[in-house]
Amino acid sequence: MGSLPSDRAVPAPSEPQRRRVRFSYPDPLPTVWTPRFPEMSAAANAVSLSMPHVEPYVVASVRAGAEALAPDDPLRLAVDGFVAQEQEHHRQHHRFNELLVAQVHGLGRVERWMSRVYGWLRRTRSTRFGVAFAAASESLAFSLARWTEAHSRRLFDGGDPHVCTLFLWHLAEEVEHKSVAHQVWVATDGSRRRYLWAAAVSVALLFWFTLCGSVVLLHHQRRLHHPVAWWRLVVWGTSLAFEVLPNLVAGSSPRHSPDELVDPPLLSVWLRQYDPASATMPLWWTGSASQAEVSARSDRAD
């Protein structure tokens, strides 16, 4: 694998900021932390279960790909910051999941399935596939962040502030380092066919494991046979697909840059005002800020 020449058309992204955080959760942990939409908690908790398994694979793949870069390539610094953020996501979701699995019977089995599948990918797939998988997964995560912000008014109002902060912090950092894995893929491979195959695997695994975890969690909520719960999940999933799929297809081109995509403004401002030491949301966060309010806060933050 060769690196791109030093006059790369797209400049390397700046190094993502390294933040060490620690979240304090209520005792017992609320498994339903979005009381208006309990099924939203089920789906988000199911996604959280996969993070300590998929993110080590993404980190290992990007690290391995970055070894092919020139020693003085500025993209290496961005990779270091990317790795630090992803490892922190791994740690925090692992702790959250431990509390979750202790309360909900059956989630431990789903977690073991995830561990075996992503472990198998890490052992058997090539570095080039792994880097393509990482690039596609990061595009998916960025799309999820944009979708979440667009629906934040409905989904987060009245939610538990501790758990909401965990997910908002994670999504906001996904926005911050959105282009790193993609640039490593461009610099070390750039195969569109491999990217699309890896993207299909990433989406399929996320969908399947989210479905499995959601079934267990809805059963725990006694809403497994509730038609409204499934209707909402189908509507949200369809809406999310319209956000994710175009970005994944666009990302399959080495000439595409995620930096060309517009960051979700609320999450970007939120992260700049977030205090990792206290691990609490900025006081202005209500989940329903208007565009004008976001712009005003951005100006003040600058």
List keywords for this structure.
302 residues; single chain; disordered C terminus
Give the fraction of residues assigned to helices. 55-70%
Briefly note the structural class of the backbone. Answer: mainly alpha
Kindly provide the radius of gyration, computed on alpha-carbon positions and rounded to a whole number of angstroms: 19 Å
Mean pLDDT across residues: 87
By DSSP, the count of extended strands is 0
Strand content: under 5%
Report the span from N to C terminus. 41 Å
- Shape summary: globular
- Please give the domain count: 1
Topology pattern, helix = H, strand = E:
HHHHHHHHHHH
- Total number of helices: 11
Largest sheet: none
Low-confidence stretches: 1-7, 286-302
Description:
Helices cover 68% and strands 0% of the residues. It has 302 residues and is mostly helical. Helix 1 runs antiparallel to helix 4 (127-150) and helix 6 (161-176) packs across helix 10. The radius of gyration is 19 Å and the shape is globular. Mean pLDDT is 87; it is low at 1-7 and 286-302.
